[in-house]
Structures are given as structure tokens and as C-alpha cells.
């Protein structure tokens, strides 16, 4: 569960103040909650379902931008914080000035979250951030967040439409981050993902050696699978995947069928006013979901898979990363899907199995790494599947 909200909490008064356009920082009134919740529902409906607001300039709408600032800003902040915390490549950049390019920055949650974590960990003596978005209102708000809460970070503002090309960027960046922005580019184009790939590859000249490309997208089926496809193509073009896995082969989710995705889900009890806004709008905000990948510019060993699975009748061991929620089937078994870097493998247990309960099987979460010894063999070499039996052992490494 996401429990470390202390850094986010520091920004809440600033977000409220910017929304109100004054310096008052007291809690939202019932009238204000109702106003924000109504605009949030309009924004949320436009970003899911038929996604009519995607790529439609909603950041230039004052009401929708306000709802984003008080609700989606904190959610995006925590997504970036959690993913960055679990990426050693981001934590080991330190000892020098770090430059960040935030593309599609909106009001700046991604860059703010990265700077908070880098400064907290002492990873950089100095940080500079370039904020880029089509919306001048959003970029201005992002700059104001930094001016109020992160005075030591130098910022540059650029307003432009990526789909028409980026302006000339005079320097290289240690981190290029795009939070929920890729899916909004070329939305109506039949070759949208190819255009997005070309766009990302063009950014490589602006990445420093060993630089990080950090991509986060919504955990919807279409947006998630589009990012999985871009993941494979970026690896083929020399990028190295460093998180949430280090599997440099094609993603098994894409070849497992059109309804398979790979996304993180982290339990979270949000701070106020996010909690009250969600409750007022009738939205569930008990977890944070996203599909994300973090790449390095320099190539890694392409030959090593993430994990391996060995199938032997006498002494079986299986290892991988959990990539699904627990699913109860008609026969009364709880099943998880595990990725070993090559395949998605089912591992299951009867819903009331005492050994499964004892070893923590029913408590598994997405992206937990597990190793299982002496499981029941329920599949074959072509379609491996495993179960829990009385002498099965399970080791869990939680994805914190």
C-alpha cells in the first residue's frame, strides 16, 4: 500500500491555493467540493469510455484544469513516486546536476514527484526542469508549483504542440518523462503508434548517455497494449528496459491474446481533499493503477530473460512476476498469472486450501516477484500451469 504521502502532503495547500487563485489554504467548503466533483465527473467521463476529451485541449478549459489540479494531479504524482522508488536506475543518477524534460507536463505532477524523490534521497545537488505542454495555462500552473514548493529547482517553460514537432532543445537531459501524454498524441491517426514511436526515437538525441526515458499511461486496455507495443519497438531500437522488469524480449502479454495487458495497481488511501472529492463524485479511489516502463538509452544484455521456468516431473521450480489479480474460476480455484519473461503462466490453488493460505498465496499482488518450489504440475511444456500442494513452498519479494 502507498503510505508515504508526506511529500505529496506538502503540495496540497499550494494546489488548493492555485485553484482558488488566492492564498487561502483552509479545507474546501461543501460548495467547493460539489463544484470540483461536478467538473471532475465531466473530465473523468471524457478521459475513459469513448475518451472524447483525449487530445481535445481540455487543459485549456479552466474548470477541467481545476478538477485535474485537485484530483488527477495527486494521483499522477503518486504513480510517478511509486514507479521511481522501485527503479534503481533512477536512484543511482546522483552526484551531479540532473536535468529533467517533462513532455506533456500539464500542471507538473510528474516532474514535481521526480524532483521530490531525487532531493529527498540526496541524489542531486542541483536539478533543472524543462516543462513542455500545448496548454499555456497548465505550464504556468506547473511553474507556479515549483516556484512555491521547490525553489531550489530551476525551471524553463515551453508551450508547443508536439504533433507539429518539438522546438529545438539546446541541451541533453538525464530524464525524459511523459505522464499520460503519449496516448493523446495522434489519437485519430490510423498509424498513431508508429508516429508515437518515431516521436520517442527522435527524443533519443536529447537523452544523455545512460539517460532515462520514463513513460506512464492509463491502465485501460487500449492504452496499456499500445504502450506494450511501443515497449517492444523501443527495445528493438536500442533502448534497455530497467523497470518494472528487465526482460528485453518481446512482452508475453501481447502474444497471450487481445485482452491481456500488464499494469501496476497499488492500494492507496488518498489524502484530503482527494478522498472527499472522489467520494462526492462517486468514484472509487482505493488504488492507483497505471502501465509504465522505464528505459535506459544504453543497451543492456539482450540475451538474459527476466526469470526462468523449469519443468521437471520430480523437482519443479518456477519463478516470475505476478501480472494479474487473483481470479476465482468456476471450479473454485483462485488463479494468478505469472510472467517469466517468455510466457504468462497460470498458478492456482483451491480457494480454501490451507497450504496456500499458510504460504501467503492468496495475498499476492501485481508485480510481486515469486519463486515456487515443488508446485503441482497442471500443464505441459507448451502450456505450463502450476498449483499449490501440501509440500509446495513460496517465496515472495513484494514490489514495494
Q: Helix and strand succession?
A: HHHHEHEHEEHEHEHEHEEEEEEHEEEE
The span between the termini is 8 Å
Q: What class do helices, strands and sheet pairing give? A: alpha/beta
> How much beta, percentage-wise?
15-25%
Helix residue percentage: 25-40%
Oligomer: single chain
| Rounded mean pLDDT score | 87
Tally of contiguous helical segments: 11
Instruction: Tell me the major beta sheet.
Output: 9 strands, mixed
Unreliable runs, pLDDT <50, ≥5 residues? 300-308, 311-315
Rg, Cα atoms, Å: 22 Å
> What best-fitting shape do the alpha-carbon axes yield?
globular
Number of strands: 17
Structure notes:
Helices cover about 35% and strands about 25% of the residues. With about 400 residues, the protein is of the alpha/beta class. The chain contains 11 helices and 17 strands. The protein has helices spanning about 5-20, 30-45, 60-85, 90, 110-120, 135-150, 190-205, 220-235, 250-255, 275-280, 355-360; strands at about 100-105, 125-135, 155-160, 175-180, 205-215, 240-245, 265, 285-295, 310, 315-320, 325-330, 335-340, 345-350, 370-375, 375, 385, 395. A hairpin with a 7-residue loop joins β15 and β16 (about 385). The strands form 2 sheets. Strands 9, 10, 11, 12, 13, 14, 15, 16 and 17 form a 9-stranded mixed β-sheet that branches. It starts with 5 loop residues before the first helix and ends with a strand. α7 packs across α8 (about 220-235). It is globular, with a radius of gyration of 22 Å.
Write a brief caption for the model.
This protein has helices at residues 6-20, 30-47, 62-85, 88-91, 109-120, 136-149, 192-203, 221-236, 252-255, 274-281, 354-358, and strands at residues 98-103, 127-133, 154-159, 173-179, 207-217, 240-243, 264-267, 287-296, 309-310, 317-322, 327-328, 333-339, 344-350, 369-373, 376-377, 385-387, 393-397.
Amino acid at each position: 500500500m502507498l503510505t508515504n504521502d508526506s511529500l505529496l502532503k506538502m503540495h496540497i495547500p499550494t494546489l488548493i491555493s492555485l485553484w482558488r487563485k488566492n492564498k487561502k489554504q483552509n479545507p474546501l467548503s461543501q460548495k467547493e467540493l460539489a463544484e470540483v466533483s461536478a467538473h471532475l465527473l465531466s473530465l473523468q467521463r471524457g478521459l475513459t469510455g469513448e475518451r472524447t476529451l483525449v487530445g481535445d485541449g481540455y487543459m485549456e478549459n479552466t474548470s477541467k484544469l481545476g478538477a485535474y489540479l485537485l484530483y488527477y494531479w495527486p494521483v499522477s504524482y503518486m504513480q510517478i513516486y511509486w514507479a521511481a522508488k522501485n527503479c534503481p536506475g533512477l536512484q543511482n543518477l546522483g552526484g551531479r546536476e540532473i536535468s529533467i524534460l517533462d513532455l506533456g507536463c500539464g500542471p507538473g505532477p510528474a516532474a514535481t514527484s521526480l524532483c521530490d524523490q531525487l532531493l529527498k534521497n540526496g541524489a542531486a545537488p542541483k536539478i533543472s526542469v524543462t516543462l513542455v505542454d500545448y496548454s499555456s495555462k497548465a505550464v504556468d500552473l506547473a511553474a507556479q508549483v515549483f516556484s512555491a514548493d521547490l525553489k531550489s529547482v530551476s525551471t524553463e517553460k515551453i508551450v508547443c504542440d508536439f504533433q507539429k514537432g518539438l522546438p529545438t532543445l539546446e541541451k541533453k537531459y538525464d530524464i525524459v518523462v511523459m505522464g499520460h501524454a503519449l496516448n493523446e498524441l495522434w489519437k485519430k491517426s490510423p498509424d498513431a503508434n508508429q508516429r508515437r514511436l518515431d516521436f520517442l526515437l527522435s527524443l533519443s538525441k536529447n537523452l544523455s548517455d545512460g539517460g532515462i526515458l520514463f513513460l506512464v499511461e492509463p491502465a485501460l486496455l487500449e492504452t496499456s497494449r499500445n504502450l506494450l507495443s511501443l515497449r517492444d519497438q523501443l527495445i528493438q531500437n536500442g533502448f534497455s528496459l530497467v523497470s518494472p522488469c528487465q526482460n528485453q524480449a518481446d512482452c508475453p502479454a501481447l502474444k497471450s491474446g487481445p485482452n491481456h495487458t500488464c499494469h501496476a495497481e497499488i492500494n492507496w488511501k488518498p489524502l484530503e481533499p482527494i478522498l472527499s472529492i472522489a467520494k462526492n463524485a462517486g468514484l472509487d479511489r482505493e488504488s492507483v493503477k497505471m502501465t509504465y516502463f522505464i528505459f535506459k538509452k544504453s543497451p543492456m544484455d539482450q540475451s538474459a530473460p527476466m526469470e526462468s521456468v523449469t519443468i521437471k516431473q520430480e523437482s519443479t521450480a518456477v519463478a516470475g512476476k505476478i501480472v494479474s489479480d487473483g481470479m476465482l474460476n468456476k471450479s473454485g480455484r483462485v488463479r494468478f498469472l505469472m510472467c517469466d519473461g517468455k510466457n504468462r503462466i497460470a498458478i492456482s490453488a483451491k480457494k480454501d486450501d490451507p497450504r496456500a493460505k499458510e504460504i501467503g498465496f492468496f495475498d499476492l499482488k501485481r508485480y510481486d516477484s515469486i519463486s515456487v518450489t515443488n508446485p503441482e504440475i497442471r500443464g505441459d511444456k507448451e502450456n505450463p500451469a502450476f498449483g499449490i500442494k501440501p509440500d509446495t513452498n513460496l517465496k515472495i519479494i513484494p514490489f514495494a
